[in-house]
Amino acid sequence: MSTKALKIANILIGLGIGLLLLGIVVSYSTFRPYLETLWQTKDIPTAPPFDRAMMVADATVIALLPFDEAPVPTEISPTVTVSRSASLAPVQRQATPVMLESIPTLTPTLAAPLQPTAIAQPLGTAPTRIRISAIRLDAPVVPIDWEVIETTAGAQGIWKVPDWRAAGWHNTSALLGVPGNTVLNGHNTTYGEVFRDLYKLQEGAEIVLEGEGSSTYTYTVESLYILKEANQPLEVRLENARYILPTMDERLTLVTCHPYGSIQNRLIVIARPALASLPAEGE
Question: Where in the sequence is the domain holding 174, given as residue range(s)?
């Protein structure tokens, strides 16, 4: 090869390397969340089996954990219709358990008419906004329900996820301020990526939920877990779904896909009411 040709080859190689470096710099912001989540996933433990002692006695799985992208229904003929009044009927909203035998029966008499005595029930409110300062998150919360998807494995209930930058409150989960499991889900890659940075939360981080009437409820992150979900047997997915079932204690559960750009796993964040925290008005 002549000296001239060698110089031209070196120039072309230099240009190629320069363009490659420029491409890496320009696309770094795109690939950064993929790299960060993959790097930090090793520090998030796999979820242990859910403590069934904390579950409400008659709690059953009505729908599986949500997808970051809705699964494509498999066409099955004839179409199977699953009624919510059947075995997949959603559980009712949770409230503080009240022992029926402890409630006195008031029987009015003609001689001395009595007004029925109202029994105090715990008040709760649906969440309307979530704020997590540690990850600069401030987003609305909207109620969501679940839908039945026909798959090759049969009809499966799947929780919907808001298709914009909002967290979804599972409308059969607990209201704020009462015992039970308040469950919120959100996308981590699409539709605004509301829960994109959940994996960055550390134990002790504060989560503030706003309810109706501008009341606020503060929770403290207790744990983060990874659940293997995609391509898992139905038995595994049903076990995973126990994390969003009603519980006897008061807790907040956040659910999203993980890592970034993948539906391989689910990330679960469990938080408890902050100690000595009372709902504050007008904050």
Answer: 33-74+124-283
